[in-house]
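Form 7-S
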Amino acid sequence: MSAVEEAWARPAFDLARGVGALERLRAAAGAGGLQAVLDRARREVCNAGGRRLRVVDGAPASAVEYERSVHAEGLLGVRADTWHDRFNVLAWSLFPRTKAALNARHVAELDRPVAPGRRSRVRDALSLFDEDGVVVAVSGCGSRRWCGDSRGVRCSWANANA
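Output:
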């Protein structure tokens, strides 16, 4: 089993496996193949303004251009040969409303004054959540394990099987 196959067998990818997205993502050729991943999503994949997203070849020159392009035109620029951009397409296909909300919030922040070459603390936080974030939903008796101070949470994470 390859490292990718081993990673995809983990519970974190259950949702994507359940809709066959991982196989389509891996087999996708170019922007057209990645567009097919979006087109087969359970929900229509649109930006916050309701414009359906279209995958296009070539990533914008900057993060600002990327956010504005998605928000204003519904254009999702990708480097189809990178797993970073492939997983971004996967995230859009599985969580389109969350991704649209994150994108809209990024764009709302773009006109705030910041030092040249920097982004605001809000955009930093949005990027960290978007690129690396995890939402853990628990209920019932087990939820007490996930509550409490950060030490308790770290201990719970250390013992998680995801």
